[in-house]
# Entry
Amino acid sequence: TEGERKRFRDLLDTGRLVDSFRRLNPAESPPPASGPHYTWRGHPPVHQAVAKYHGKGMRIDYALVDEDLLPRLVSSDILGQGADRNGFMGSDHSPIRLRLRQAATGAESAEKAQAAPA
# Structure
């Protein structure tokens, strides 16, 4: 709902957090249901003829990073995709892979500071 989205944005702003997947994969409109854009998929029918949420997807799992880590952000991937839950590894939630560059050592940070123009 719009209220949930607003509260989530407020949480991100207050905590100086960034949605790593959305930062690397911006979307102006809802992405296609077939791709790796949703972290949750409804179960297919098990003990009934129809499952209310089968084939539906939502993005409810996140890899959030502090704003200060953005220069180290390499990738943020949703590993499962599609209504058949390919890659979901037995769950209705897809794994997420977040990769960050290794932090610079103290010596590397000092060198960069000295090399930076004043």
Observations:
- Residues 38 and 67 are 23 Å apart (CA to CA).
